[in-house]
What we know:
Layout: E1 15-27, E2 36-37, E3 46-48, E4 61-71, H1 82-87, E5 91-93
Parallel strand pairs: 4-5
Antiparallel strand pairs: 1-4, 2-3, 3-4
Amino acid sequence: MFVKPKKTVEQINFLASARYQNFTYQADKTYKAGEVYPANDATAVGIVFNDVIVDGDTGSQPVAIMVEGYVLKDRLPVAPADEAIAALKEIKFR
């Protein structure tokens, strides 16, 4: 009998809809999926779509940034600041 190891996903789904738009940016630090990019303030551009790890060996890495879509605010790892929500005009928080 063949037994296949079970794999589980630990990434939380923060999308409220299947419709979204991502663009590629260069990350200079490590981000978790759902964090506001590049900072949780008025300079916010979007929300990190997938985890990205940046260290001394890898240097800056490409990262998918969600710039338009619907997001479940309560499922994000860090609640976006009011300034970030105002800057993310095309992202609707539910």
